[in-house]
């Protein structure tokens, strides 16, 4: 049986292991930041070099629970997804932008469409029907 060590990261960070299959971040390295506790088979005390900066890891002998990085990452992923799907009331057109008003062109007669086109500086083809006129006006408005 391998011995399990428990360490708290005191400076920098430490990467150990990968997120498990089925996790939103599966395959990514698990990174422990300052203050987090990890449980490992490796004796990380060997990285504690003497010097003015001090040790990188603190060995723990008490019942301090290890940081549950998988649960933290899953919660962060859930929060990100929730933020992306959040409806702030502005709709898909951005803040303060009302949705485009319905142009009601489909309800207009061909004569009204010709008048509208003329007012807009457009000339409808002579032999067009109501559907062609609506299509022509919408395409011209989209280009402008």
Structure description:
The structure is a single chain. Helices cover 28% and strands 15% of the residues. It is of the alpha+beta class. It folds into 2 domains: 5-85, no CATH class; 103-143. A 3-stranded antiparallel beta sheet has the order 4-1-5, with no helix packed on it. The model has no long low-confidence stretch (mean pLDDT 84).
Structural class: alpha+beta
Number of helices: 3
- In percent, how much strand structure appears in the residues? 5-15%
Q: Which H/E pattern describes the elements?
A: EEEEEHHH
Q: Biggest β-sheet, characterized?
A: 3 strands, antiparallel
- The number of distinct structural domains comes to 2
Number of strands: 5
Q: Mean pLDDT score, rounded?
A: 84
Percent helix among the residues? 25-40%
Instruction: Note poorly predicted spans.
Output: none
The main sheet orders its strands as 4-1-5
Q: Which quaternary structure do these chains form?
A: single chain
Between the first and last Cα atoms, what is the distance in angstroms? 75 Å
Rg is 32 Å
Annotate the secondary structure layout.
Blueprint: E1 5-9, E2 14-18, E3 29-32, E4 37-40, E5 57-59, H1 69-85, H2 110-119, H3 130-143
Antiparallel strand pairs: 1-4, 1-5, 2-3
Helix pairs in contact: 2-3
Key traits:
144 residues, alpha+beta, 2 domains, three-stranded antiparallel beta sheet, 5 strands, rod-shaped
Concise overview:
Helices cover 28% and strands 15% of the residues.
């Amino acid at each position: 049986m391998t011995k399990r060590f428990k360490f708290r990261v005191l400076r920098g960070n430490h990467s150990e292991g990968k997120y498990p299959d089925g996790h939103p971040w599966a395959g990514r390295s698990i990174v422990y930041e300052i203050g987090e506790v990890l449980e490992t088979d490796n004796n990380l005390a060997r990285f504690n070099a003497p010097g003015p900066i001090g040790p990188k890891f603190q060995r723990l002998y008490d019942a301090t629970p290890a940081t549950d990085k998988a649960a933290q990452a899953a919660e962060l992923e859930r929060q990100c997804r929730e933020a992306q799907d959040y409806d702030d009331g502005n709709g898909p057109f951005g803040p303060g932008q009302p949705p485009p008003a319905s142009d009601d062109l489909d309800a207009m007669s061909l004569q009204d469409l010709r008048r509208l086109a003329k007012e807009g500086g457009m000339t409808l083809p002579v032999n067009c029907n109501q559907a062609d006129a609506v299509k022509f006006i919408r395409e011209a408005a989209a280009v402008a």
